[in-house]
C-alpha cells in the first residue's frame, strides 16, 4: 500500500498520557476535554473516544452540530455545548442528552421553547471580563431570575454555571483574580436566588496548570490535551507531548544553480547551487502563507528551510547538498523529539499561535491514528 502523499499522524497514546497528567493537576475536579473545531484539527470522534478512555468525564464542544456529530459517532457521556445563534435547533441536542448553555434571557427562552421530549439540562454562562458570550451586570441578574422561575416550575434543570478566563496564560495578570472574584459573586447571586449549581467551572488549560483556586468542580482543558502550551512563554512542571505530526512525501526534487528564484514573486533566490524539494501541501491544506521564507521542516535528521511563497497546493524547501529523492519524507512539524520543528515553531514563523497551526489543517491531508484502543 502506498504511503499517503501527506498525512497528519495522531498519537492517541500521547493524547491519553497528556490527559492523565492534566487530571493530576486538578485531582479534586471532574475533567472536561474540549474537542471543538474537529478536535482542534485532530479529529473529534477519534480523540473524544480516547479522552473517554483516559477518564475524561465530560466533553466540550462549541456548536450544537458538533455535539450531534459526537452523538452520531457513538458518544453517550456528559457533553456540553455553548455557542448558538438565534434559531438553533435546541430540541435535537436536548433529546440527544446534551447539556446546553444559556448566555442570556433570550437564549434561555429559546431553549425553553424548543419542542424537546425531555426536560433540558442547562448551564448558565456569566461574562466575568472576557466580554464575549455570557451575561453580566443587570443581564446576569435577569438571567438568574428567569432561570430560577423556570427551574422552580419544572421546565428546566440548571446543572451548572461557568465562565472563561481572558489572561490565564499569564498567571500573574491581575485580570485572573478579578475574574475569579466576579465569578464567585455571580455564583453567590445564583445561590441567593435559590439555585445551587452542581458544577462550577472557570479553568481553561492554562488555569488548570497554574491556578488551583479556580479549579472548582470541573476544569475544561483544550489545547494542552493536544500537547501544545497555551502560551509558549508559560512554564510549568507538567510534561505534555504534542499529539500531531504532520508529514509529506516530496513530490519533486531538483538541483538548481545559484541565482535560481522560487515561487510566485521570486521572494527567494538561491545564493549558491542547491537542491530544492517540493512538499505537496499548501494553504489549501491550511499551511500558513504568512510563514513563507521563515519556517523550517525536518528532513534526513536535520532541518531544511522553507523558501519562496507558500502556494495553494505546495511549498518548496531548500535541502542544500543533502541526498534527496522523490518520495522522501519531510516532517513539517511534530513533537520535536528528533529535532524537527514543532507547531509552536511554525506559529512563531507565521506570527500566530499554535492553536491556529493545528486547527486549520484539512484539505487533502489524511489523518492516520496510532495508539488507538480496541
From TrEMBL:
EC number annotated for this UniProt entry: 5.1.1.1
Pathways involved: Amino-acid biosynthesis; D-alanine biosynthesis; D-alanine from L-alanine: step 1/1
Keywords carried by this UniProt record: Isomerase, Pyridoxal phosphate
Post-translational modification N6-(pyridoxal phosphate)lysine, affected residues: 36
Gene Ontology terms, MF aspect: alanine racemase activity; pyridoxal phosphate binding
Top enzyme class: isomerase
Protein residues bound to substrate: 132, 312
Active-site feature positions: 36 (proton acceptor), 264 (proton acceptor)
Pfam families: Ala_racemase_C, Ala_racemase_N
CDD domains: PLPDE_III_AR (cd00430)
Reaction it catalyzes: L-alanine = D-alanine
GO cellular component terms attached to this protein's record: cytosol
Residue intervals of the Alanine racemase C-terminal domain: 243-370
SMART domains on file: Ala_racemase_C
Cofactor names: pyridoxal 5'-phosphate
Matching PANTHER family: ALANINE RACEMASE (PTHR30511), ALANINE RACEMASE, CATABOLIC-RELATED (PTHR30511:SF0)
Family: Belongs to the alanine racemase family.
UniProt function note: Catalyzes the interconversion of L-alanine and D-alanine. May also act on other amino acids.
The protein's name: Alanine racemase
Organism: Aeromicrobium ginsengisoli
Lineage: Bacteria, Bacillati, Actinomycetota, Actinomycetes, Propionibacteriales
Amino acid at each position: 500500500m502506498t504511503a499517503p502523499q501527506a498525512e497528519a499522524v495522531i498519537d492517541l497514546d500521547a493524547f491519553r498520557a497528556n490527559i492523565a497528567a492534566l487530571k493530576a493537576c486538578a485531582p479534586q475536579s471532574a475533567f472536561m476535554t474540549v474537542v471543538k473545531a474537529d478536535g482542534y484539527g485532530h479529529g473529534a470522534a477519534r480523540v473524544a473516544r480516547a479522552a473517554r478512555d483516559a477518564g475524561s468525564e465530560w466533553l466540550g464542544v462549541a456548536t450544537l452540530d458538533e455535539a450531534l456529530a459526537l452523538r452520531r459517532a457513538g458518544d453517550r457521556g456528559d457533553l456540553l455545548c455553548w455557542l448558538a445563534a438565534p434559531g438553533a435547533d435546541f430540541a435535537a441536542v436536548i433529546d440527544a442528552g446534551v447539556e446546553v448553555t444559556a448566555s442570556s434571557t433570550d437564549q434561555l427562552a429559546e431553549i425553553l421553547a424548543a419542542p424537546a421530549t425531555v426536560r433540558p439540562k442547562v448551564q448558565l454562562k456569566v461574562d466575568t471580563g472576557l466580554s464575549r458570550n455570557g451575561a453580566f451586570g443587570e443581564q446576569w441578574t435577569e438571567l438568574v431570575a428567569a432561570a430560577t422561575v423556570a427551574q422552580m416550575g419544572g421546565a428546566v434543570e440548571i446543572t451548572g454555571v461557568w465562565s472563561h478566563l481572558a489572561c490565564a496564560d499569564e498567571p500573574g495578570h491581575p485580570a485572573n483574580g478579578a475574574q475569579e472574584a466576579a465569578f464567585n459573586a455571580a455564583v453567590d447571586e445564583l445561590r441567593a436566588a435559590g439555585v445551587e449549581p452542581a458544577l462550577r467551572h472557570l479553568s481553561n488549560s492554562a488555569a488548570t496548570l497554574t491556578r488551583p483556586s479556580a479549579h472548582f468542580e470541573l476544569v475544561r482543558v483544550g489545547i494542552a490535551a493536544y500537547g501544545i502550551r497555551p502560551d509558549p512563554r508559560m512554564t510549568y512542571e507538567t510534561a505534555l507531548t504534542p499529539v500531531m505530526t504532520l508529514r509529506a512525501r516530496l513530490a519533486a526534487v531538483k538541483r538548481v544553480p545559484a541565482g535560481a528564484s522560487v515561487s510566485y514573486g521570486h521572494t527567494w533566490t538561491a545564493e549558491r547551487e542547491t537542491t530544492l524539494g517540493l512538499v505537496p501541501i499548501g494553504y489549501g491544506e491550511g499551511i500558513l502563507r504568512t510563514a513563507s521564507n521563515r519556517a523550517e521542516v525536518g528532513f534526513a535528521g536535520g532541518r531544511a528551510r522553507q523558501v519562496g511563497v507558500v502556494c495553494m497546493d505546495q511549498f518548496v524547501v531548500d535541502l542544500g547538498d543533502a541526498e534527496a529523492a522523490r518520495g522522501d519524507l519531510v516532517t513539517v512539524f511534530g513533537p520535536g523529539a528528533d529535532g524537527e520543528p514543532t507547531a509552536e515553531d511554525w506559529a512563531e514563523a507565521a506570527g500566530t499561535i499554535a492553536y491556529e497551526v493545528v486547527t486549520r489543517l484539512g484539505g487533502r491531508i489524511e489523518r492516520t491514528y496510532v495508539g488507538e484502543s480496541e
